[in-house]
Amino acid sequence: MPFKSNVLYAALLATASISLSSQAQESKKTNEEAQSQDAKRLKAVVVTAQKREQSVQSVPLAIAVIGGDQVLERGLSSSNDVQRLAPGLSGQQSGFSRPRWFIRGIGSNDPNLTTESPLGVYNDEVFTALTSLQSFPIFDLERVEVLRGPQGTLWGKNTTAGAVNYISRRPDFATSGYVRASLGDWGAKAIQGGLGGAINEHTAGRIAFYHNSYDGYARNLATGNDGPSFEENALRVQWLTNVTDTFNALVKVHLHKREPGGGYSYQVHSEPGGADRFGFTPAYGTNPKAGDDYYAGESEDITNTEGALVKLNWALGGATLTSISSYDESEGHSKSFSGHPPTYTGTRDTTSGRGEDYSRQASQEVRLVSPQDGPLTWIGGLHFFRYSFVQDSASATFAPSTRSNYSRTWRGQDAESYAVFGSVKYEFTDSFRLNAGLRWTDEDKDITIHTVRTPTGATTFNNVSSWWNTAALNTAFNYDEAVSAADSWNEVTGDITPEWQINRDALAYFRYARGYRSGGFGASIPTLNSAQIAAGVVPYIPVVEPEYLDAYELGLKSTWLDGTLNVNSAVFYYDHKDIQLNVQAPNPLNLINPPSGSFSQNASQGEIKGLELEAHWVPTANLQLRAAYSLVDARYVDFYPLLSVSGVTQTVDRSGNRYFRTPKHQFSVDAQYRIPTDSAGTYILSTDWVYRSHQYYDAARQGAAQGEVARALDGNVYQREWQEQGAYWIGNARAAYLTRDERIEYFIEVQNAADENYVVNATAASPSYPVSLGTPRFVQVGVITRF
Questions:
Q1: What is the rounded distance in angstroms from the CA atom of residue 326 to the CA atom of residue 309?
Q2: Which residues of 181-203 are buried (b: 16+ CB within 10 A; e: fewer)?
Q3: 96 contact partners, CB below 8 Å, separation of at least 6
Q4: pLDDT at 96 over 70
Q5: If pLDDT is split at 50, 70 and 90, which confidence band does 504 have?
Q6: What average pLDDT does this structure show over 452-477?
Q7: pTM, whole model, 2 decimals?
Q8: How sure is the predictor about 712, in pLDDT bands with cuts at 50, 70 and 90?
Q9: Are residues 85 and 171 in the same domain?
Q10: Per-residue pLDDT tens digits for 396-432
Q11: N or C, which end of the chain is more exposed by having fewer CB within 10 Å?
Q12: Are 639 and 604 in contact (CB under 8 A)?
């Protein structure tokens, strides 16, 4: 009996053990599945696009967000690199010039400092006024937010295209940091890093640095050096102090030095076969490729910028009062000299150029944000912005003697704006909310331009080494004009957005917004012809009136597959009025002082219709996929630009032309796959690709409404293959190994993996067509250390 009892007891114990073991295994399996499912779910992305912290899926606005880790890991180093991962955004650069920002067809191709950017570029909510300063390094960032559509209510400046806000990683009381170092093609060397932590009980600090340089990827046959070379250095220091439990202060100081090795473009000459007017044909003929040998003179271009920001936050009984004060200034100088091929069939122009500029800007914003715990929430504030610049540019031709000349222009502009803004949101039901905002802006601008010139073919210098100084001239001016202008504008803009929370995973919204782009001035005094002089027309500075945009957008933000898939979409219609367009004025006869140059005009209206689709999917815990598609049908309406070609100035009809720099179709895909191992670390494979369909680089090319006058005026000036770009793909790839403790990551990156050759800018005949090409394939290896 005891034996049977023991057997029965043992059997019962074994059965219980098996049952408990099975339950434990099921529980473990359930926990592992739950953890796996949690790992698959998309993390909530917090943005401040509406000046308060919100999940990006809850904001009724088309937004792209690029995390700071993405910027670091994908090797995004310049401000315009975000176009790789921000659907619908384009920021192409000609060499090292400022990015030509475009969103949904809205952008500017005007290189002049007098131009107002239609897209707002912000650093920690501070607007960058001058387009020439919108190219800068990006490092140690929290994230980048790209807002599509007019931003005329809550942001520092009214803009018609949208806004890009680069948000620095703030100091934290927990110690953290990183270093990223790499070596690559063309003698490239790059290193950046950041370190932050507690300084004392109440204060935390963070310091970040950046360096990037390379020698260039093409041989300059005029100098024997590789080009275009480049070097850039930057430093940022921040302090965050918790003065009290309800009041904190953030102070930021930043420095930046940019030193590109000069201009880089291929001269495609207008004679048959790409020959110049002396019979020389470059090896690339009419079809240059990035990396081909080229001819350019010695040059120098250095820009230094520095600035400071103070951001104060007070918690006032649930509301938050914020003050942002900033000051920035820049100083730059450049020199350039002509470079010629060794074969001379005639006497070529020997030219030099020199420029100096200085700018400064100051801004102050104060806003009060309500608590978010009730049906009514609101934001109100005041904004002040002031900027000024001075520019001194000179050029001269020394040979041949029949073309010798000298010209110099001094420009100075001051601008000041004041704004009052407010936005209110009311939640009528759990599923319906209405948001409305208004902004009143008052702007004043004044400008002075002084231009001097000497007669062509009769200019001599007593001191060629300092030719830019007027004291170096032996020849008196035959043109000396100083003109001033001033104007002011005020405008009320705003938006209204009803939104419907269909369920917890779907938000639908309709948004109407009115955008406004400030008026301004031309960058030069137009040269008057004899008829105008006889009629008593006096020299003047052209005024460009404000540009307006009425935007209508219907959007849907949704989450699917148990939180693993986000799908967002939008359809929009833009009514674009008084468009500020920079119209190229070609000079195919190579006149020394052509009657007109590249200048802005309010020459057109426009209509834009579009569709956007975006998806972010995490099908497994180790695979992330992103894809986006945009369709933009943008055409000019009532487009009558004033063109001047070789002394003939006439208004022509270009109605029906497609917007320039606006592909009708854009598609992007981004994938990352992680391969964890049991015995080692994790292998990471990633790639991103962008497709852009056919696009033009000049609005006033021959187009849909060309007539006999247009054909006779244009001739072969605008309708050239390098004034447009066919469809192309740009892709990047990366492979990395991350150690088990996730502190060290070794990587190899390939940018422009297919080595695509594509045009990013082309200028009308003068009589050569300077063509700027995209960067060829670039490979680098490096390491990221986190601590």
A1: 4
A2: ebebebebebebbbbbeeeeeeb
A3: 135, 228, 230, 258, 260, 301
A4: no
A5: very high
A6: 92
A7: 0.91
A8: very low
A9: yes
A10: 999 888 989 999 999 999 999 999 999 999 999 999 9
A11: N
A12: yes
- Same domain, yes or no: 144 and 195: yes
Rg for the chain, CA atoms, rounded: 30
Question: Phi then psi for 472, rounded to 5 degrees?
Answer: -85, -5
Q: Is 34 helix (H, G, I), strand (E, B) or coil?
A: helix
Range with the poorest average pLDDT among 319-328, 645-654, 770-779: 645-654
CB-based contact 93:135 (threshold 8 Å) = yes
User: In terms of Cα–Cα distance, which of 122, 164, 120 is closest to 515?
Assistant: 120
CB 174 within 8 A of CB 531: no
Q: What is the pLDDT of residues 728-740, one digit of tens each?
A: 999 999 999 999 9
Give the DSSP H/E element, type plus range, for residue 10: helix 2-40
What tokens does 601 get? 């005009």
Tell whether 588 and 632 lie within a shared domain. Answer: yes
| Phi–psi pair at 352, nearest 5 degrees | -145, 155
3-class SS letters over 718-739: CCCHHHEECCEEEEEEEEEEEC
What is the rounded CA–CA span in Å between residue 694 and residue 659? 11
The residue that leads in pLDDT, 537 or 253, is 253
CATH number at residue 346: 2.40.170.20
State the CB neighbour count (10 A cutoff) for residue 642. Answer: 15
β-strand 682-692 against 665-676: which pairing, if any? antiparallel
Question: What distance in Å separates the CA atoms of residue 582 and residue 588, rounded to the nearest whole number?
Answer: 19
How many CB atoms sit inside 10 A of residue 28's CB?
A: 10
Structural domain span for residue 628: 46-786
At which residue do the structure tokens 């050096």 appear? 225
Token pair belonging to 768:
């050569």
Residue appearing with tokens 């852009």: 692
- Whether residues 449 and 474 fall in one domain: yes
pLDDT the model gives residue 740: 94
Is 765 strand, coil or helix?
coil
319-350 tens-digit pLDDT: 999 999 999 999 999 998 888 887 766 778 88
Are 82 and 179 in the same domain? yes
Alpha carbon separation from 384 to 252, 295, 320 (Å, rounded)? 19, 47, 20
Task: Name the nearest CA neighbour of 441 among 337, 548, 302.
Answer: 548
What pLDDT does residue 447 have? 97
Structure tokens at 586: 């070609």
Residue 727 CB contacts under 8 Å (≥ 6 apart), including other chains = 663, 665, 691, 692, 693, 694
22 and 52 both lie in a single domain:
no
